[in-house]
Amino acid sequence: MSGHSNDNVSSEELWGGGRSPYGISYGKMYMWFFLVSDALTFSGLLTAYGFSRAASEDPWPIGEQVFRALPGLEGQYPLIYVALMTFILIVSSVTMVLAVEAGHRNDKRGVVRWMFATIIGGLFFLGSQAWEWSHFIHGGGGSFLLATEVSITADNGEEYILPVGEPIFMDHHFGELAEPYSNGDASVELHEHHGHVTLTQFGEHTHEAELHQLTIHKYIQDEQVISGDDIYKLWEARSESFTFGANMHENEYATQQSYANFFFFITGFHGFHVFSGVVINFIIFIMAYRGVFERRKHYEMVEKVGLYWHFVDLVWVFVFTFYYLI
Amino acid sequence: MERDDLIVNDSYSLNAHHSEEEGVKIRKKILFVTVLLTVITAVEVAMGIIFKRAETFSWEIIKWTFVTLTLVKAGYIVMSFMHLGDERSVMKKTILIPYLIFIVYLVYIAFTEGYGHLSMYNSFH
Fold it and tell me: Can you tell me the distance from the alpha carbon of A263 to that of A251, in angstroms, rounded to the nearest whole number?
């Protein structure tokens, strides 16, 4: 791809000093070395995730059950949103490689146009990740633990004896309404009707919500839904505290905290890389637009930031597989 | 075998230029890699939705298929998008070999210890 002449030299002369044995400029080489060290960091994080998961004594949540919402839509779409994020990042990687290609032809207009497209793609990804975080933090409605043992019949007819400490997951609307109760607010009254529970909350405002179903074993292998009068049995056996969404101390997705912490750390660290990548891309975009590289007669800076941007895409490919898929 | 100890003078990447005709060829290759990466991602998502987890042999196969597809994707990104495939062989080795040695060892030791902890826990509870 580079402009080679036919002036071959021997190995002795090559390594004898005075030229780059790697055939690569100083700046690009050190970008590669930086990326190797950064890749070691990310690999370390993902391997730590793998270690925690392999060593986990409790069931580990399943990606397609935790991440199955789309913004503004009802219903379940397992992994579709993450797939969309992956696609956005791949496309912005492609526009970056097209900017590098335009740079090799000294095509200033092409570089500016494709760099702009890359920045837009990066911003879209950051926005998607913000929504993903928000959704993860708010959760699907919260959960409570059983304070006493309960025997229950699931909707599929299977009977379960649920031990003390078994997490029960709530419907989204109901979860929001139940939240003040976790802070010791006693102004919650529970009425039983046939087949569902009505929760009325008194105070400045009066809300009413109907709970049609509760879920046991959510986010793991055998998700089971409970409806009918058995909901009331579960609700009666609840413990005092509720868990809503995820934070650094507790999460509704798993009984162990490392699942949520790794989510925050790995996707957060990657998101920070995307953010800095967008900033760097923007600087190079402005420089290209103002003709700095045109005067330099080469667009190697575009190649260097391109390497960084592709690396961000590369990391996401691994995060996607090891955090969401497997 | 092509000798890679010979270099052409003045072949620093600063002078990496190509013509319009070469550009057309390169863009064709970019399009190919784009389509390939998209298709692999779509296949992965479809597999993730369709196949259920179980402690069985079939899930092991699916898991390793995910890993393989991911490595294929990573290979295309590094070799094609990051142009490492176009660099001199000594450069490729400098980047890849130290990284791979560390990571293969790290993954091996982390998973051995992780499963070891779990089996220890299980045998005492």
Answer: 11
pTM, whole model, 2 decimals?
A: 0.88
Terminal-residue alpha carbon distance, chain A: 38
A274: β partners: none
Chain A residues whose CB is inside 8 A of the B66 CB are 321, 325-326
**What distance in Å separates the CA atoms of residue A284 and residue A145, rounded to the nearest whole number?**
53
Bridge-partner residues for A144, per DSSP? A168, A242
Within 8 A of B5 by CB-CB distance, chain A residues are: 10-11, 14
CA distance B1 to chain A (A): 16
State ipTM. Answer: 0.88
- Quote the radius of gyration of chain B (alpha carbons, Å): 21
What's the start-to-end Cα distance of chain B, in Å? 59
Residues B108 and B90: their CA atoms lie apart, in Å, by 27
Strands A143-146 and A238-243, bridge-based pairing: antiparallel
Contacts of A53 in chain B (CB under 8 A): 114
CB pair distance less than 8 Å for B16 and A104: yes
Q: A231, A194 in Cβ contact below 8 A?
A: no
Q: How does residue A115 score in pLDDT terms, banded at 50, 70 and 90?
A: very high
Task: Give the pLDDT confidence score for residue A267 in this predicted structure.
Answer: 96
